[in-house]
């Protein structure tokens, strides 16, 4: 399927039909994401399991970050915010749910590290608080104290706080309390590529993803005009799914191997990284790309994120899961997707 990469570039350069370019570009991200997932997994197998989940989440979010940058430059800020909210919801519900289903079909019950999930759950609550409060502030009745400028200033101050909190959480899990996050790795999980080979292929796949991301964003507006879908749905469902393929592949594989702890950590770490690092960074650097992004998300998106965090916190509280809990998570994601389609 890698032939789709040069094909999408060719179609883009000759100004082919937007729908054709969009479909080919989306499909080209599948092999790129597979390579990205494999190379990051090869590197992660040389590290502790917590570092492993962080690597998978980070390089999975690299594609989303690039799409967000190109979309901000194109003036598609509504789609960017929807795709970020969609990724948080998708990673907590669909990714973890699919991993529980895949693992549960092979293993009756699967146990996971409650210490790791507990810390991640608290970080997620902090994340949604940081996203919800600027939204509530922006929605207050217009008074002299509530202006667009004050919303931006508040968003930047909260973004710095969230970013620092995320960095300190890395110090906690990687250094000062590393012993709490040790989980057993399957003996069959052994690296087969050299570190240099994995790093080179990872860099190449990120470069290809950047090119395809640029083409994908340039096709969004023509697709919206043709299909009459709104930016929020395209970002929250379509873009979010496309950009999270690497995490899904890795998490489901670990779930099947009875390492559901790592699957849950990938989903939760990815959501945390988006909310506490990617979103704040985009808020702070958006002026460099001719836009001013804030943390004032549409209220419906904030409600969906809060519901997702509450549900995953409840399911992750007992340290054991099965395929039915996975179905429940996927069902909630499906309900949210349906709701956004009709908005």
Task: Write out key terms for the chains shown.
343 residues, mainly alpha, A middle domain of Talin 1, two-stranded antiparallel ribbon, 13 helices, globular
Binned, the helix content reads over 70%
Count of the domains: 1
Structural class by sheet pairing and helices = mainly alpha
Strand content is under 5%
CATH architecture: Up-down Bundle
CATH superfamily: NCX, central ion-binding region
In the CATH scheme, what's the topology name?
A: A middle domain of Talin 1
Q: Which series of helices and strands comes N to C?
A: HHHHEHHHHHHHHEH
**In this structure, how is the largest beta sheet organized?**
2 strands, antiparallel
Low-confidence stretches: none
Strand order of the largest sheet: 1-2
For the secondary structure, the number of strands is: 2
Gross morphology: globular
Q: End-to-end span in angstroms?
A: 35 Å
| CATH hierarchy, class | Mainly Alpha
Count of runs of 4 or more consecutive helical residues: 13
């Amino acid at each position: 399927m890698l032939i789709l990469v040069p094909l999408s570039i060719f179609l883009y350069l000759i100004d082919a039909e937007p729908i054709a370019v969009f479909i080919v570009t989306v499909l080209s991200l599948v092999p790129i994401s597979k390579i990205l997932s494999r190379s990051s997994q090869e590197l992660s197998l040389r590290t502790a399991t917590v570092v492993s989940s962080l690597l998978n989440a980070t390089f999975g979010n690299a594609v989303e970050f690039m799409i967000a940058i190109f979309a901000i430059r194109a003036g598609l800020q509504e789609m960017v915010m929807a795709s970020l909210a969609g990724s948080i919801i998708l990673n907590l519900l669909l990714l973890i749910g699919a991993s529980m289903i895949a693992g549960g079909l092979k293993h009756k019950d699967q146990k996971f590290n409650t210490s790791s999930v507990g810390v991640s759950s608290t970080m997620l609550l902090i994340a949604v608080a940081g996203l919800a409060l600027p939204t509530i502030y922006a929605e207050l009745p217009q008074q002299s104290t509530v202006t667009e400028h004050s919303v931006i200033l508040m968003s930047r101050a909260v973004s710095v706080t969230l970013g620092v909190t995320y960095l300190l959480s890395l110090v906690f899990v990687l250094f000062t309390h590393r012993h709490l996050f040790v989980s057993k790795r399957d003996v069959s999980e052994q690296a087969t590529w050299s570190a240099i080979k994995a790093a080179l292929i990872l860099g190449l796949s990120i470069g290809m993803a950047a090119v395809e991301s640029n083409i994908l964003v340039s096709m969004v507006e023509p697709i919206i005009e043709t299909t009459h879908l709104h930016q929020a749905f395209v970002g929250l469902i379509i873009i979010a799914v496309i950009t999270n393929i690497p995490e899904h592949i890795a998490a489901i594989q670990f779930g099947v191997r009875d390492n559901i702890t790592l699957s849950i950590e990938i989903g939760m770490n990815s959501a945390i990284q988006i909310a506490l690092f990617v979103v704040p960074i985009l808020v702070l650097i958006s002026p460099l790309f001719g836009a001013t992004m804030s943390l004032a998300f549409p209220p419906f998106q904030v409600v969906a994120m809060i519901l997702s965090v509450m549900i995953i916190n409840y399911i992750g509280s007992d340290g054991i899961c099965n395929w039915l809990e996975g179905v429940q998570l996927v069902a909630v994601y499906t309900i949210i997707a349906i709701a956004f389609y009709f908005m």
